[in-house]
Design a protein that fits this description.
Elements (H helix, E strand, L loop, with lengths): L1 E5 L8 E5 L9 E10 L2 H8 L15 E9 L11 E5 L8 E5 L3 E3 L13 H14 L7 E4 L5 H12 L3 E6 L2 H10 L3 E4 L5 H8 L5 E6 L6 H6 L1 E9 L12 H5 L4 E4 L7 H14 L1 H5 L7 E6 L3 H10 L5 E5 L1
Parallel strand pairs: 8-9, 8-11, 9-10, 11-12, 12-13, 14-15
Antiparallel strand pairs: 1-2, 3-4, 3-6, 3-15, 4-5, 5-7
Helix pairs in contact: 2-3, 2-8
Bound molecules: NADP nicotinamide-adenine-dinucleotide phosphate.
């Protein structure tokens, strides 16, 4: 089959499309004919050699896809050849076919076409698992989402507002801030021009927010903690601003605040399967009712994988970038 091959580690120029053996579905897996694969920031890190796939996962980049089931492995019950699905992957998405454990296979939500469905698994699983499982958010809570116009951010704004959570967000350009407000954010803060700590304090009458969903890591650690309300939770999911920072434990202890960091990819199959069940139950109905819409910047052919990575690196996109084999 055709798949993206990385020649060592480095910039987008190391990527090309070539022939590799078609995977065989193992026990409890299905083989999916890929309709589209979603790009993720972690794909850029994997390409650079900083984020190797977990043991046993495909070496091919790609952590989510949509497609059609073409073969069933032993004991792969509950699915049939020909079913249209969307999948959370440990790797292997930038290809014509991928083997997927059945727990990570989900139906396509109502009202979403098969290609667009590739924009959903990673953002839905990341946002649902962090806001609901990890941070225990519920109606009436408040949330600060950094990078509200990105893939994760645009989904988090929609999901949280649909659950009755008040959302404040940050973004890098006036157009992106406007987009965040259109998605339902109560306020959007320009991270180049404004101090988000001052703005969040002013917008919450000094109380702070219950949860921060953070993509920046070290660079924002102290400031994120300072905008948490009493009992607030900082959930770090990215390290775009570095991995190492000093933590003032007193800033947590006095106000019973906590800091958690999670990665979806390294969770075992059972953990990913639990999250996929939660997504199908809690998130897909909101997508089916049009309360959450998949946000796609562009769909590009697999052969344009280098340009797709350059586009994500440039950071001018809004929502998801998809590749079709
Ligand atoms: N831990 C996990 O399981 C997991 C899973 C998926 C993704 N992630 C992480 O989540 C993050 C977002 O992923 P994505 O797919 O949504 O990528 P993306 O679409 O490229 O979004 C990146 C976002 O970062 C924002 N940003 C850049 N500099 C910023 C700053 N100084 N302050 C605040 N925001 C800033 C951008 O905002 P502007 O565009 O407005 O500049 C953009 O919204 C990445 O760090 C990724 O690694 C983690």
């Amino acid at each position: 089959m055709r798949a993206v091959i990385a020649d060592g580690a480095g910039g987008p120029e190391i990527l090309s499309v070539g022939e590799v053996p078609t995977p065989e579905p193992g026990a409890g897996e299905v083989l999916v004919r890929v309709a589209a694969a979603g790009l993720n920031r972690a794909d850029l890190l994997q390409r650079q050699g900083f984020y190797p796939p977990p043991p046993g996962a495909s070496e091919t980049i790609g952590m989510e896809c949509s497609g059609t089931i073409e073969e069933l492995g032993d004991g792969a019950e509950g699915w049939s050849v020909g079913d249209q699905v969307t999948c959370l992957l440990a790797g292997g998405g930038y290809a014509e076919s991928v083997a997927v454990p059945i727990g990570q296979v989900m139906p396509v939500p109502d009202g979403v076409d098969l290609v667009t469905a590739a924009a959903l698994p990673e953002v839905a699983a990341t946002v649902w698992s962090n806001l609901i499982m990890v941070a225990g958010m519920s109606e009436g809570d408040s949330l600060l989402v950094h990078g509200g116009a990105g893939g994760i951010g645009s989904f988090a704004i929609q999901f949280a507002t649909a659950r009755g959570i008040r959302v404040l967000t940050t973004g890098g350009t006036p157009a992106k801030l406007e987009f965040c407000r259109e998605l339902g954010a109560d306020a959007a803060i320009d991270y180049h021009e404004q101090d988000f700590v001052e703005e969040v304090k002013a917008l919450t009458e000094g109380r702070g927010v219950d949860v921060v969903l953070d993509n920046m890591g070290a660079k924002y650690l102290a400031r994120n903690i300072s905008v948490l309300a009493d009992g607030g939770r900082l959930v770090v999911i990215g390290m775009q601003g570095g991995a190492k920072a000093e933590l003032d434990i007193a800033s947590l202890l006095q106000k019973r605040r906590s800091v958690t960091a999670t990665a979806l990819r390294s969770r075992p199959v059972a953990g990913k399967s639990e999250i996929c069940r939660g997504v199908v139950e809690d998130v897909w109905p909101l997508v089916g009712r049009g309360r959450i819409r998949p946000i796609v910047e562009t769909v590009m052919p697999l052969d344009d994988v280098r340009a797709a990575h350059e586009l994500m690196e440039a950071g001018s996109h809004t929502g998801k970038i998809l590749l079709t084999p």
